[in-house]
Amino acid sequence: MHFKYSEWSDRFNQSNQAPFDTLFNLFQELLSIAGGDVSQALKWLNQLDEEYNITDQFDDGYGLGDFIEELKERGYIRFDEEESVMVPTSKTDRSIRRKALDEIFNQLKKGGEGGHKTAHTGRGLERQPETRSWQHGDDTSHIDGTQTLINALKHTSLDQFSLREDDIEVYNTDHYTSAATVLLIDLSHSMILYGEDRITPAKKVAMALSELIMNSYEKDSLDIVAFGNKAWQIEIKDLPYLKVGPYHTNTLQALQMARHILQRKKFANKQIFMITDGKPSCMVENGKFYKNSFGLDRKIVNKVLDEAVKCKRDQISITTFMIARDPYLQNFVRELTQANHGRAYYSSLDKLGGYIFEDYIRNRRKNVK
Hints:
Layout: H1 19-33, H2 38-52, H3 64-73, E1 77-80, E2 85-88, H4 90-109, E3 125-133, H5 145-153, E4 169-176, E5 179-186, H6 199-216, E6 221-227, E7 231-234, H7 251-263, E8 269-276, E9 282-285, E10 288-291, H8 298-313, E11 316-322, H9 327-340, E12 343-346, H10 352-363, E13 365-368
Parallel strand pairs: 5-6, 5-8, 8-11, 11-12
Antiparallel strand pairs: 1-2, 3-4, 4-13, 6-7, 9-10
Helix pairs in contact: 1-2, 4-6, 6-10, 7-8, 8-9
């Protein structure tokens, strides 16, 4: 495994942060990279402290030993009697997801993709500047009082004010409908190849999206499917600790599992978000693996395209977030997108969150006339 490091910056050394908060920010990042291995994360934290003298900045002599004790006292880590190791708690899981959500929204505020206004996140109805004539059943809270009064004054006499039904104007609104989403995360070996850590940004986006849905869109559903040689469903609490394995890429089985999950859902919108950096390179055929890592195998590709068509028939859209720039891989994504009538983004890792959040909001929004 290879990691790409950047120069230490003061973003973890904010003057208004307590020593615990400064170290906890780093610890959460390292814990996610370590796949939930508390001991490994603390070892890396010690190494960073030795190299960058992080704890020397604390005036009260706060050290890493104090930090570890405080982690225990605050309920972020506990001792597992069966495994005889320290493990993260559910409180840590929630904290990492919340941190990921905050990071994504900070990116959006700086100028994310599309036209989503972060101040309106989670609202059922978003008012638009355009107005139209009132119709029976419209929500009276959306009446445009100024334009309604102007319309009434046009036919009102000096001695008697007259308001007619056709004077009333209401604002157009965007209505947020319910949505069922399956997020597919590629855990094949290429997600950490060539000195680039692609899995950590992918996990962060998945954690942030899950936190957004659980807190702002409680009626929506989100299922997570990881895939390598095979596809398997995971729980949201496991997201921070996903690890890349020595896997090929079974895109076919991932799409099949997602479609079967969504077939059981009764939602207005059904969608698949797939984060991947590689080509489909394996599938299960007659109970055996069929694999080919040397370029695009048309036998595998055609099966994947057939599955995309099945998703389209079930009114399930597929949005692919390709975090690779290889032209032949982009051609495959174009074929997949055409077969499903879905969408594709060729995203850099730093903009992945913006793309996914914008697309999620857009997919669950319809204009109310």
